[in-house]
Amino acid sequence: MEISDVITIGREALIVTIMIAGPLLGGILLVGVVIGILQAATSIQEMTLSFIPKLIIVVAILFVLGGWQILTLVEYLQSLLANLSMYLQ
């Protein structure tokens, strides 16, 4: 296995990770910023106020994009296993 193979596998793994985690983290970030602005504007400093909306958005995103995320992960794993013999030479 060459160093370029390791770099390629690592780059592809990072891209797949970003594709899978990106929508979840983006949704949580957006909800967190909106809740933070509302808390600052209304002077309500309740810590649990932001937890429930974040939980709801994670469930909603997983409901909408969960199938695509699993399919992306399975396709990456299949391509990794299909090229395994090439990497082990």
Count of DSSP-assigned helices = 3
The overall pLDDT average reads 90
What is the helix fraction of residues, given as a range? Answer: over 70%
Radius of gyration, taken over Cα atoms and rounded to an integer in Å: 19 Å
What's the SSE pattern? HHH
Question: Tell me, what's the shape?
Answer: elongated
Helix and strand content put the structural class at mainly alpha
**N-to-C terminal Cα separation, in Å?**
6 Å
Counting structural domains, the number is 1
Poorly predicted spans: none
Characterize this entry briefly:
The protein has 89 residues and is mostly helical. It is built from three helices and no strands.
3D structure, described in words:
The chain is mostly helical. The protein has one domain (3-87). The chain is 85% helix and 0% strand. The chain contains three helices and no strands. It has helices at 3-42, 51-82, 84-87. The longest helix has 40 residues, at 3-42. It starts with a helix and ends with a helix. The model has no long low-confidence stretch (mean pLDDT 90).
Please specify the SSE layout and strand pairing.
Blueprint: H1 3-42, H2 51-82, H3 84-87
List the main descriptive attributes of the protein structure presented here:
single chain, 89 residues, mainly alpha, 3 helices, 85% helix, elongated
